Inverse folding.
């Protein structure tokens, strides 16, 4: 059997219903900046049911530590404060150690009013981050590189200081649609999605890409099942698809639910071709042999590809940080979560370097929207004043079998495909990008 309430579950959060700090070397109105430091923060799950995502911000912290040891950025050390928000689920317990009254809002209030952060960087979770958008906007605090594929972060007119990082769920859905039309054009396609923007936008992308899903095979599960431990939605969904003998199933779920879906199908003797969103396909967190040969998307290099310069570089960075990665060794598998955190940390540091000595929030955003960013991603990370989503595409990737053991990585299948979340925009093919490591980061 599987457990829904696990360290690998769930991309949900319960929405939660005086600036200070002028300093030398910066504009008097720039909190978090002194002549020698810049303080940033993040609201992230460090305990509870989503604790497996802690490696994302831990990897970012390891990159900042590495940069600080090399002298920082323009003479400033980067102080990264990560506070546990338990994905907004602290009131339910579930292994959360942050206190029952902790919410994403209370955590962000501490970062802003007590820690006087320059910006939040890499805070994680769609509902959690949506619940604090207005608060951060009221306090003029940039909300940078939100770790979620929602299109909510790409609202440059309403929220000019907010940026996403990964491709939107809509773009992922479009890429899946292209793959389905190439390989399964005559097959019936099923869909299982989380009943929030993860499932809704993923479905929208698949449909925008030209795939019709019969209503009987278009199914959802309740994200709150992770709180109650209920498996009834998943059992009903998978059983319906199995009864209809649907040969190809697209899944927009988080890792705990992905593992549950695969386990139920196995118990039923049902083995369709699985196509799984990147948010729920990370082999190290799904952690089941049943995921082998599933199709997913990936916007990073293969984690076992030492010919890509970023893989040995990140290994060096993680080995240098035994505090955040005490169990990481020279033989450990780098996870996609650590690539994710390292990439947005690099984007922050490179933008900060481009801004120069005089650091302001407005100046940082201006540079972010005009600077070429070199990161481990295999598709360009490019922001403009009119596009705040971040990465615009990904490559189809196949979860690589590992014998009878759980897979540990996926293998990219060639070039990348980019798009926007607009229903009218198609996909554009491009070669895989390998950015050079800037000399000052080596």
């Amino acid at each position: 059997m599987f457990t829904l309430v696990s360290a690998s579950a769930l991309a949900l959060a319960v929405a939660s219903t005086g600036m200070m700090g002028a300093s030398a070397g910066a504009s008097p109105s720039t909190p978090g900046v002194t002549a020698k430091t810049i303080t940033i923060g993040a609201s992230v799950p460090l305990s509870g049911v989503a604790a497996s995502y802690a490696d994302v911000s831990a990897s970012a912290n390891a990159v900042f530590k590495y940069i600080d040891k090399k002298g920082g950025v323009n003479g400033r050390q980067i102080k990264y404060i990560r506070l546990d928000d338990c994905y907004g689920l602290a009131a339910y317990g579930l292994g959360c150690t942050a206190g029952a009254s902790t919410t994403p809002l209370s955590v962000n209030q501490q970062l802003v009013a007590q820690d006087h952060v320059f910006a939040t960087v890499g805070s994680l979770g769609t509902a959690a981050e949506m619940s604090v958008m207005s608060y951060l906007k009221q306090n003029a605090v940039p909300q940078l590189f939100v770790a979620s594929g929602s299109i909510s972060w790409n609202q440059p007119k309403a929220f000019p200081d907010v940026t996403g990082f990964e491709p939107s769920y809509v773009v992922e859905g479009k890429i899946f649609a292209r793959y389905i039309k190439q390989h399964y054009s005559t097959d019936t396609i099923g869909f299982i999605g989380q009943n929030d923007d993860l499932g809704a936008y993923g479905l929208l992308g698949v449909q925008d890409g030209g795939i019709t899903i019969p209503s009987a095979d278009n199914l959802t599960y309740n994200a709150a099942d992770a709180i109650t431990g209920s498996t009834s939605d998943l059992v009903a969904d998978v059983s319906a698809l199995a009864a209809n003998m649907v040969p190809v199933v697209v899944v927009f779920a988080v890792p705990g639910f992905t593992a549950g879906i695969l386990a139920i199908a196995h118990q039923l003797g049902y083995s369709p071709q699985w196509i799984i969103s990147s948010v729920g396909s990370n082999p190290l967190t799904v952690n089941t042999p049943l995921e082998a040969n599933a199709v997913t998307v990936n916007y990073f290099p293969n984690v076992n590809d030492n010919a890509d310069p970023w893989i040995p570089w990140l290994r060096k960075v993680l080995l240098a940080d035994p505090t955040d990665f005490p169990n990481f060794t020279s033989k450990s598998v780098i996870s996609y979560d650590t690539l994710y955190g390292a990439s947005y940390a690099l984007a922050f540091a490179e933008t900060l370097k481009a801004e120069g000595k005089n650091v302001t929030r407005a100046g940082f955003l201006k540079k972010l929207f005009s600077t070429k960013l070199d990161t481990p991603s295999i598709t360009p990370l490019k922001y403009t004043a009119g596009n705040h989503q971040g990465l615009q595409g990904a490559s189809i990737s196949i979860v690589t079998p590992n014998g009878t053991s759980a897979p540990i990585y996926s293998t990219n299948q060639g070039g990348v495909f980019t798009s926007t979340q607009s229903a009218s925009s198609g996909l554009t093919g491009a070669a895989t990008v390998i950015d050079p490591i800037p000399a000052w980061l080596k």
